[in-house]
Design brief:
The complex is a heterodimer of chains A (about 350) and B (about 170). Chain A has helices at about 1-35, 55-65, 75-90, 120-140, 145-175, 180-190, 195, 200-210, 225, 235-260, 285-305, 310-340, and strands spanning about 100-105, 105-110. Chain A has about 350 residues and is mostly helical. Chain B folds into 2 domains: about 1-80, Four Helix Bundle (Hemerythrin (Met), subunit A) (Up-down Bundle); about 125-170. Chain B has 7 helices and no strands. In chain B, α1 (about 1-25) packs antiparallel against α2 and α2 (about 25-45) packs antiparallel against α3 (about 50-75). Classes of the chains: A mainly alpha (about 350), B mainly alpha (about 170).
């Protein structure tokens, strides 16, 4: 009873809450880092150095008036923010934050579940998340959101191909689709897959920037041309749901990158006995540190690079990333067969 | 018992959404019901201990193909009322006869053919690999290699055809 029901439920509650808190503070981190990059201070008023800003933002967004345009498709307009939020959250079911640990005299795994098609589950749930943006643009019954959602669907479909191909190379290295299994494979290979698959890792990072609609690929919400893009007509908490989904997706992508390419919860050089004094740091802390580095990188990229033009984006995706990913996949397959 | 309840609930949802797909007037709503339908089919695969198929069902059908449907629906203007599409050459009587024939055929299959369905699990047990993903892969590359290759050839031909149609000068 306790092992089958209470503990998984507790884990789900903890992971969901931690994610939502993480998302709100991710927004603050982004505002602060971009402000520092532009020699500004960023939010400073609410709490010391703006530390309570996310709470103020949440209260503000909940109190704002919620407007549905008169000519909008009301049903779809209401469902669209939920459709983009839910996939971003249910992906956390298979992300391994750590191995099995003993907690209060009980063996507890630091992941909600470990299904043997974990990676495939993540890819398929992410592919459903696209609907949120497409439907939001369609249901608004307005020019800019419709343009943005057409852009978004084309962009997401194009980059999904490249990203999925890089994931296949990782699966070839590990021989399993289970997220825990992939971390274990890196442990026994004595190698983080980022060093075995540098090309796949590079394509994954570029592709995931595009899949999360982040700068320099934030065309679906280009403020200057589309007045905010697919969420132009949204207000209040529904608008906030889109932003929560975007940042939750960033955390998902960082966690996946950490698990697949940087050894998940493993400490650096897990097989060197000389470094075993590092073991006093709990495994999930390593996971969080590595994921944080990726999140910081996301913000850093946004502060540094200007937005791509639409044709440049498509050219990069179809003519560079996908052929490179296929070449990398074939090469990985040949090397794997030669080594066996 | 529980399995039967789950199966019939899922089947009812699948059929219900399938009916909604063809009866809804708004094309976009119809596509959305199709997505829901595919998700419930994926749930059916999970129930049948085929998680790999379930994930592929969501990835390829719910996430990939239907996005393209939606893309096309949004590019094409379908604001006209469905009444405008009434086909003058519609053959109501032939349609009725055909559907009754199909119904009788299904009833005959249900009444006579149930006992002859071969159990699938024995075949799966004979495979040298365990795990749903591995078993699907093994079957595709051994027993079903030729159908698999033919299917991929068909897809390649369709892809080349699309490129030839879309590109004015090659």
């Amino acid at each position: 009873m306790i092992d089958g029901f209470v503990i998984p439920l507790l884990k789900i509650v903890i992971v969901l809450n931690a994610t939502l808190v993480g998302v709100t503070y991710m927004v603050l981190l982004e505002r602060k880092v971009i402000a520092w990059a532009q020699s500004r201070l960023g939010p400073m008023r609410v709490g010391p150095h703006g530390i309570l800003q996310p709470i103020a933002d949440a209260v503000k967004l909940m109190l704002k008036e919620d407007i549905t345009p008169a000519r909008a498709d009301k049903w779809v307009f209401t469902v669209a923010p939920i459709i983009s939020m839910v996939p971003a959250l249910i992906v956390y079911a298979v992300i391994p934050f750590g191995p099995e640990v003993s907690l209060f005299g009980r063996q507890v795994t630091l992941y909600i579940t470990d299904i043997n098609v974990g990676l495939l589950y993540i890819v398929s749930v992410a592919s459903v998340g696209v609907y949120g943006i497409i439907l939001a643009g369609y249901a608004s019954n307005s020019k800019f959101p419709l343009l943005a959602s057409l852009r978004a669907s084309a962009q997401l479909i194009s980059y999904e191909v490249a990203v999925t191909l890089t994931l296949v190379s990782v699966v070839l290295m590990s021989g399993t689709l289970s997220m825990v299994g992939i971390v274990r494979a890196q442990e026994s290979a004595h190698l983080w897959f980022a060093f075995a698959q540098p090309l796949a890792f590079g394509i994954f990072v570029i592709g995931s920037l595009a899949e999360t609609n982040r700068a320099p690929f934030d065309l679906p919400e280009a403020e200057q041309e589309l007045t905010g893009g697919f969420h132009t007509e949204y207000s209040g908490m529904r608008f906030a749901l889109f932003f929560l989904a975007e940042y939750a997706n960033m955390i998902v992508v960082s966690s996946v990158a950490t698990t697949l390419f940087f050894g998940g919860w493993l400490r650096p050089f897990p097989n060197w006995a000389a470094l075993s004094f590092l073991d006093f740091i709990p495994s999930w802390t390593w996971f969080l540190i590595k994921s944080f580095v990726f999140l910081y990188f996301f913000v850093w990229v946004r502060a540094t690079l200007p937005r791509y033009r639409y044709d440049q984006l498509m050219r990069l995706g179809w003519k560079l990333l996908i052929p490179l990913a296929i070449a990398n996949l074939v090469l990985t397959g040949i090397i794997r067969v030669a080594l066996l | 018992m529980g399995e039967a309840i789950a199966f019939y609930t899922l089947a009812a949802f699948i059929l219900g959404f399938a009916v909604l797909v063809i009866t809804t007037k708004d094309t976009v709503h119809s596509v959305l019901f199709l997505v829901l339908d595919f998700l419930f089919v994926a749930a059916l695969y999970v129930m049948l201990n085929a998680p790999f198929l379930a994930a592929i069902q969501v990835l390829v059908y719910a996430g990939g193909i239907v996005v393209l449907y939606l893309f096309v629906v949004m590019l094409v203007n379908l604001k006209r009322l469905p009444e405008a599409f009434q086909d003058p050459n519609r053959h109501g009587r032939i349609g009725l006869i055909l559907s009754v024939a199909v119904l009788l055929e299904l009833a005959a299959i249900a009444a006579l053919g149930v006992g002859s369905v071969a159990p699938v699990r024995t075949a799966a047990r004979a495979l040298p690999v365990t795990g749903n993903t591995e078993q699907v892969g093994w079957m595709l590359y051994t027993s079903y290699l030729i159908p698999f290759e033919i299917a991929s050839m068909l897809l390649l031909v369709a892809m080349i055809g699309a490129i030839v149609l879309a590109k004015r000068e090659l």
